[in-house]
């Protein structure tokens, strides 16, 4: 079987069938049914957050989050406050959601150690047109949340963390999801914890809780029409998978930790690894390695492909280079993007497969 960068976790099918049977009996497939309600409550306590609202995917979570701070009418689209400051080193969903909400992404370069938005360059990017700041806890590593918060507060600009990768990561003794005015998460099948497709919004500013709730379900409460909302609801079928997968989360994280530790041991001194904060309790979401040059990376990819192994260039290209954004320069992100590769990491990756991957990488680099 080919080895891809990830393989969705598959819980025992019988467990999922039990949940499906309950949905069949209840005859409720969506609109905040039993599975969604139960899952929100269990995730709230597992993740140690004040609340979580489930939505249909992590991209619409970002769009609803952006929408939460106000809605400009179409005739105001060219007015001020159209810029969202963000990172160029992330999956394209972050940038695209900004553009889909008719905002302009303004890219701030990243830290070379852990690839998150560099707060030292943030303040210079803030202008009277800044609507929000959208940093990313990329790979589950923590942004410098205190510094970002200080700058945001000084300029009275909201912070929305794209925490798509941050399931289970903790920073300074708190869930990484509990930082920012809002944080969003993805439960896509490629993620360490998934519901095939799914997402969530964590509302850390309690004043926004009701607005997020309304925006994700068309913006009305029975006959009371309040906002021009959207359909971002998650179905019971997805939430049922979430319930079952949550029963296995400890074993998932344990298995991923062991794989990361095996890679660490076998690749020490061979590739560069990110340096993460000491007070981060990591979730083992990804295993990125950085090569000395793009040539080395391409050699490794070619070699692995010959053996049916497909790591991914997460994240390439640096998003400030997308053909549809205003040209800007982010030299650190561009350099890292050209040299970084995420190695296969999923429950079920065997010790032999890990050894083989590391052996092939080493052969390319001697
Ligand atoms: C950083 C980041 N943000 C947002 C998303 C979008 O999430 P989804 O695929 O659930 O829409 C992803 C997705 O995979 C992501 O990696």
In short:
The chain is an alpha/beta fold and 366 residues long. 37% of the residues lie in helices and 13% in strands. The chain has two domains: 13-246, 3-Layer(aba) Sandwich (Aspartate Aminotransferase, domain 2); 248-365, Aspartate Aminotransferase, domain 1, CATH 3.90.1150.10.
CATH topology of the largest domain: Aspartate Aminotransferase, domain 2
Termini distance?
Answer: 28 Å
Low-confidence stretches: none
Radius of gyration: 21 Å
What is the H/E order?
EHHEHEHEHEHEEEEEHEEHHEEHEHEH
Strand order of the largest sheet: 2-10-9-6
CATH superfamily of the largest domain: Type I PLP-dependent aspartate aminotransferase-like (Major domain)
- The gross shape turns out to be globular
The largest β sheet comes out as:
4 strands, mixed
How many domains make up the 3D coordinates?
2
What is the structural class? alpha/beta
Number of helices: 12
CATH architectural designation of the largest domain: 3-Layer(aba) Sandwich
The total count of strands amounts to 16
Question: In percent, how much strand structure appears in the residues?
Answer: 5-15%
| Overall pLDDT confidence | 96
């Amino acid at each position: 079987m080919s080895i891809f960068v990830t393989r969705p976790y598959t819980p025992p099918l019988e467990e999922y069938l039990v949940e499906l049977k309950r949905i069949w009996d209840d005859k409720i497939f969506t609109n905040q049914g039993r599975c969604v309600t139960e899952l929100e409550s269990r995730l709230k306590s597992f993740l140690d957050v004040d609340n979580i609202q489930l939505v249909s995917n992590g991209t619409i979570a970002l769009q609803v989050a952006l929408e939460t701070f106000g809605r400009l009418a179409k005739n105001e689209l060219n007015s001020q406050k159209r810029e969202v400051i963000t990172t160029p080193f992330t999956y394209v969903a972050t940038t695209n959601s900004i553009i889909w909400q008719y905002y302009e992404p303004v890219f701030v370069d990243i830290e070379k150690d852990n690839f998150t938005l560099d707060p030292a360059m943030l303040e210079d990017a803030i202008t009277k047109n800044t609507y929000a700041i959208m940093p990313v806890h990329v790979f589950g590593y923590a942004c410098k949340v205190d510094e970002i918060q200080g700058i945001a507060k000084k300029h009275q600009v909201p912070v929305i963390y794209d925490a798509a990768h941050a399931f289970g990561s903790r920073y300074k003794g708190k869930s990484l999801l509990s930082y920012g005015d809002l944080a969003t998460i993805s439960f896509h099948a490629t993620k360490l914890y998934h519901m095939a497709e799914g997402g969530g919004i964590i509302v850390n500013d309690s004043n926004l809780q009701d607005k997020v709730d309304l925006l994700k379900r068309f913006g009305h409460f029975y006959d009371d029409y309040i906002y021009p909302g959207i359909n971002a609801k998650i179905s019971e079928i997805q939430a049922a998978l979430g319930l079952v997968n949550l029963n296995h989360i400890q074993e998932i994280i344990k298995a991923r930790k062991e794989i990361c530790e095996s890679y660490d041991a076998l690749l020490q001194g061979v590739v560069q690894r990110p340096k993460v904060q000491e007070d981060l309790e990591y979730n083992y979401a990804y295993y990125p390695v950085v090569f000395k040059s793009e040539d080395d990376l391409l050699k490794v990819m070619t070699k692995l492909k010959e053996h049916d192994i497909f790591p991914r260039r997460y994240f390439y290209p640096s998003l400030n280079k997308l053909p549809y954004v205003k040209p800007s320069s982010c030299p650190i992100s561009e350099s890292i993007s050209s040299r970084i590769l995420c190695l296969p990491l999923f429950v079920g990756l065997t010790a032999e497969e890990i050894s083989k991957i590391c052996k092939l990488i080493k052969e390319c680099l001697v």
